[in-house]
Structure formats: structure tokens, C-alpha cells
Design brief:
The relative contact order is 0.23. It is built from 3 helices and 5 strands. It has a 5-stranded antiparallel beta sheet.
Length: 133
């Protein structure tokens, strides 16, 4: 039995599942591997990436103010973060599409860090990459 296709958008180096409502008029992204539920909505893929970037910048700002890690740790005493396991699961699908996953994650994380440190106001620029697993 084939596995259902899962659309994952990388935004700021953080993976998010992407779904659409029944009519296809609204997309929803939900970040994975964070220590809180962070979701975002838009009607187009580019708007979704922009909304996701804004949500991520805002979430990271809250984490800095409250002095907590934004990443969800692995359970059962294991060292590391859940997002590392998600990257590992995505790596082969990305490679088959000619995407160097870890390079993209580094570049996106750097761009997100730059955006957050320069607090330009308004909405963030979105440059998400969509990968179907």
C-alpha cells in the first residue's frame, strides 16, 4: 500500500506540513519540531511562505523573551531535537529532487536570522521550498 504524499515546506530552515481545505482556496502550514504549536494560513504558496516566515520570527522572539528553546527535544532521555529526525526523514526525498537539504536549511536559517535582527517591520519575505514526501 503506497504511503500518502506529504507536502513539507521549509521556511527559515524549519519544516512545516502543508495542507489545503476541501475547496483548495486556503492553505495551512504547521511547523514541526518546535516546542509549541505554530501554524499559519494563506491562499497561495508564496503567501503561505511569507505568513510562515512571519509566524516563525514572532515565535522565536517569544522564545527569546521567555528564555526557552524553540526546538522540541527528543523524548525518553535521548540527546538532540525532534527536528533532526525530521530532516533525516526528508533527506532522501530532497536529494532525489536535486536539493541539498542541509545547505537549504543553513541558508534559510541565516536569512531568517538576518530578518529578525533587522526588524524591518511589516511582513517578512517568504522563500519557502516545497518538498513532497
Amino acid at each position: 500500500m503506497p504511503m500518502p504524499v506529504q507536502d513539507i515546506m521549509l521556511i527559515g530552515g524549519v519544516p512545516a506540513t502543508v495542507t489545503q481545505n476541501e475547496t483548495g482556496s486556503l492553505m495551512r502550514g504547521v511547523f514541526m519540531g518546535l516546542n509549541a504549536h505554530v501554524d499559519f494560513y494563506a491562499s497561495t504558496r508564496s503567501e503561505l511562505a511569507t505568513q510562515g516566515t512571519t509566524a516563525l520570527v514572532d515565535f522565536f522572539a517569544v522564545c527569546r523573551r521567555t528564555n526557552r528553546s524553540p526546538l522540541k527535544p527528543r523524548g525518553n532521555g535521548q540527546v538532540g531535537y525532534v527536528v533532526e529526525d525530521i530532516y533525516q526523514a526528508m533527506e532522501e526525498a530532497a536529494r532525489r529532487r536535486g536539493i541539498d537539504l542541509y545547505r537549504v536549511v543553513r541558508e534559510q536559517a541565516h536569512a531568517l536570522e538576518f530578518h529578525a535582527s533587522h526588524d524591518r517591520g511589516g511582513q517578512a519575505d517568504g522563500a519557502g521550498i516545497l518538498i513532497s514526501l
